[in-house]
Design goal:
Length: about 230
């Protein structure tokens, strides 16, 4: 009985069931499975955005590149201003660091020379050894933070989603003046990651790329940002 109670509590936390008068019914996420696939993921991210009062992002490392597949933001939960391409600045963003942390040595050594760690703010880590030490400090699935490293106006945190055979992450961003909310929001994001993973698995149409095997096709030559 205790195990069943804990399971039901977890299912409610993940929005998979609702309990009314002792009866259990499909929750918001399960009801969304009746919708078209992409709508399911968009609605799941929008629900997470409203719950956290923060912009949220779903990303993966596919074919040797950083991709942000979906994002949810609003007037009260503004997104990060992409003044430098996220795909080129993985060393500075929480999303990029979370994805790079899930790659093995060979895959990182393929990525980092193509996208040199340039200085974006006074807090940006540009030393490759220091960056790798940070990525490996707490393991590939630990939280990765951007504390004014990409820009001076936003802070971010990202977690691995643990998709089999692919580096993937869920992240949130907050305006820098809301920095006191970051740790609480990070804990809530970690708790909701499973529901986003389920929605992603049900809607995933991206090609697989096994971390550590490098890009599936030869990447175009890239240069550092000016």
């Amino acid at each position: 009985m205790n195990t069943t109670i804990r399971l039901l509590d977890w299912l409610r936390d993940q929005r998979l069931i609702d309990t009314v008068g002792g009866a259990h019914h499909p929750g918001p996420l399960m009801r969304l499975t009746r919708q078209p696939d992409r709508l399911l993921l968009k609605e799941a991210l929008a629900d997470l955005r409203d719950d956290l009062d923060a912009a949220v992002y779903l990303s993966s490392y596919t074919n040797g590149e950083i991709h942000i597949h979906e994002a949810a933001h609003s007037s009260t939960a503004p997104p990060v201003t992409e003044w430098a391409p996220f795909s080129d600045t993985g060393h500075a963003s929480a999303v990029g660091k979370s994805l790079l942390a899930q790659l093995d040595f060979n895959a990182r050594m393929d990525h980092l020379p193509r996208y040199p760690s340039i200085q974006l703010t006074e807090r940006t880590i540009t030393n490759t050894r220091a960056l790798i030490d940070l990525l490996d400090g707490c393991g590939p699935h630990a939280a990765q933070f951007d504390l004014l490293e990409y820009s001076r106006t936003e802070i971010c945190v990202a977690y691995s989603l643990g998709l089999p055979g692919r580096a993937s992450s869920i992240a949130l961003s907050l305006p820098a003046h809301q920095h006191r909310r970051l740790i609480t929001a990070a804990h809530s994001l970690s708790g909701r990651a499973t529901s986003i993973l389920l929605a992603h698995l049900m809607t995933d149409d991206t090609s697989q790329c096994i971390p550590g095997q490098g890009p599936e096709t030869d990447p175009k030559s890239r240069r550092a940002l000016p």
